[in-house]
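fyi for ur records
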Amino acid sequence: MASPPASVVLDNVSMRFGGRADVEALRNVSFGFDAGQFVSIVGPSGCGKSTILSLVAGLRMPSSGRVLRAGRPITAPVTSAGMVFQKPVLLDWRTTLGNVMLSAEAHGMERASAEKRARQLLASVGLGGFEAAYPRELSGGMQQRASICRGLIHEPDMLLMDEPFAALDAITRDQISLDLGNMLLERFVSVLFVTHSVPEAVFLSDKIVVMTGRPGQVQRIIDIDLSRPRNLHVRQTSKFGQYVEEILELFMAAGLLRDDNWQSKDK
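which gave:
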């Protein structure tokens, strides 16, 4: 059964990694998201995006500040959350269905109902008929779809996604973005999504957290006011373009991007 929806708040969070290379990954990061929201984090490499995911998952504890879930500090791994990584991380010796069921087994779900749910999830992302296929028989996009289904099998209230589409070609990336948006419309799941693609973040999100370079700080939080469900045509609208331009200008102002031919529409 699904966990009750929970809001998440990062309250003045800083993160430092000691050792030979003393690295300050995050400094005074504060933002929150509500149950059912899709929130993307964008920023340069090394700004602490993946670190934020690990803090929200309870896999790391902050050096200072707090990460709250439903008003309580996260002090242990959040087992009700689903995880989707940059690579599918499927087991070669398990079928597509078997890989999705791996998470169900780890959560002690009743097998018959879990298998029924797994088949429904696979069908919803176009993998119906591939349940018995092994990872080597699937394309990269198909493997990542299976990975998303594995992250959703135990009915999480929160899905944490770390650049899940980075290795995919543009067409496959577009299709999975559409599939993911449609899947989440049917489920009350919060998503925290890390990406380097600004258009991808705008297309998928209700809110975007724009980060500075290391140590990562919140440069701006942008609410995305685009109706759902979304189709690819929304990317041709002026409103979509304005959101993309706003984020790119923030990167340029911070010295993270340079384009001598750039002309802002505000000029």
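The chain is about 30% helix and 20% strand. thats all i got for now
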